[in-house]
Amino acid sequence: RHTTFDCDWSSDVCSSDLASPPIRRAMVLAAGLGQRMRPITDTLPKPLVKIGGRSMLDHMLDRLADAGVEEAVVNVHHLAGQVETHLAGRLRPHITVSDERAELLETGGGVKKALPLLGTAPFFHTNSDALWSETGKPALPAMAQRWEPERMDILLLLADMETSLGFDGAGDFFCDGDGRLARRGAAARAPWAYAGVAILKPGLFADTPEGPFSLNLLFDRAIAQGRLFGEVLEGRWLHVGTPEAIAPAEAALAAAQPVHA
Question: Whole-model pTM?
């Protein structure tokens, strides 16, 4: 049995008197095969698919730069040379490529390989195709402000299932009044979906498998300790998983842009 709570982020229990250090580094996953996006991804890596005139990878890297991230590690595998060429001209954030041409390491294994490049402080972990429009506070700065390492091991960006575009899943998490997350489990639906952005501690990878593994391993460990938390996106998550999802996502982004006289 599950109980659904509305996350009240104005609650004092979710605030901290001590500001966390700024998050200056990020891991951006750009190695996936993008099989649901075929035939486009037969010749173009999914992170370079353009939405509203900019690649999804650039949408993410621009958000990270605007949030104060100075160093981003981008992993590559599928059509890796195209991603490397695309990134060569970026100045903000500074890009380091983690080469996974030899083996696709999944969402967790790719981070473990890149840990020497990420340092010892908490970092953003993002999908390169995570895309959203914002109607309230910017999501990444809000996550950085919410981050409380004393009681959190992982903080996830959550999307409201009722307003998300292009996502046909049943939801991922329930959230209690303190912001802690639990899996949907056997429930038919959960109100929140993981929107593809997290804050992680490097130490979480100390006791993890060699080679490919999913970040879900760390999510479940954090849940077991009561240390997986969520920050709700003030906006609309745009899930672009197939070619048919591109046009609706472009329309949603265009509708969200402010009109200038």
Answer: 0.87
Task: Check: CB of residue 50 under 8 Å from CB of residue 243.
Answer: no
Is residue 218 within 8 A of residue 109, CB to CB? The reply is: no
Cβ-proximal residues to 83 (8 Å cutoff; 6+ apart), any chain: 30, 45, 47, 48, 57, 74, 76, 97
Tell me which amino acid residue 117 is. L
Q: Is 234 exposed, middle or buried (0-12, 13-18, 19+ CB in 10 A)?
A: middle
Q: Taken in order 54, 57, 60, 62, is the CA torsion positive or negative?
A: negative
pLDDT mean for each 10 residues of the chain (261 residues): 39 43 91 89 93 93 94 94 92 93 92 94 94 90 94 96 86 92 94 95 94 95 96 92 89 70 35
Q: Dihedral (C-alpha) 114, 118, 120, 122: value to the nearest 10 degrees?
A: -110
